[in-house]
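hey can u check if this looks right to u? its 344 residues, i copy pasted from the old doc so theres a chance i mangled smth
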Amino acid sequence: MKDGMLRVGLVGVGAMGSGHLSNYLRLMREGQKVQLVAVCDVRPEQMERKDNADLNIEIQHETFEAHYNKYTNYLEMLDKEDLDYVDFAVPTYLHAKLAIQALETGHHVLSEKPMAMTVQECEQMIEASMRTGKTLMVAHCLRFWPAYEELKRIVDSGEWGAVVSAMFFRGGSTPMWSFEDWLRKKEKSGGVLLDQHVHDVDTIHWLFGTPESVQTLARNVIPGSGYDAVSTNYFYPDGKVVNAMDDWTINGDFGFEMIFRVNFEKGCAVLTRDGLTLYPVGQPAVVPDLPADDGYYREMLYFQSCLRAGTAPERCTPLSTMETIRIAQAEQLSADRGGERVRL
């Protein structure tokens, strides 16, 4: 890094990676001290696409102009380019392997969620980061999403008292667009539980800490995909009622939805498709003035600021994101046992 300028290599420009690419182009247009030096994908044609990627959450896309070098082998990219960090937007089963290789070749790493397929893989990633002295952050975008940041502020401040109950839901159409259909293969994605539901697992962990136990009901609809619909109850010592549900078989014109309702002793926070509304007890409802930028953009800015300052990413530490995977594994075990309550 010279004069605060960060040189980046992006690996994977599928559905999520194209959103990352768009944000890097935006950051450069804005004059931020970041340069997208190289892009890598095993499909050369993917780096020439001019259409919008198929994503649940709309991201602004643009023509993939050749402002960067293009590779189909990411190890060749790491060898040839002078990069400060590598951004991985690749299938989940590759997260640990690729991140460790990048760390061991002297690069900081920003990796898409979930951290990895198993806690053991997460531990290997953390060990590589500690051994090499290179920064590792998992891009759990909801920790940077303005509505969820506001919810976190209310929880941590205690201004509305204790949480009484909390409900989280996300769901939409079956993912049909992934490379070699990896999203619908349990051994590569972990199914809806590890790919999509993990957003809310992480949010619940981030907001409330690790639960004492979990109880999950789940159903498989698509052969070989793992679970496609899940519902988990999270048990905490104070007795608050917490549930998260996800379903990626809601096809037709439904689209995609991510919502929550968190009820406190002195208020309630509700996120719908229309945005976040706060309902403080004894006062009129409030629609807070939140930043317009989404979590994808904001997580990149945060990670880059940490690298420039030489500080660890405290909002999204590797240990914290590994704990999210431990909770998700307990949910998988509970579902496998027909909804048996599993302690953590």
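DSSP finds ten helices and 14 strands in the chain.
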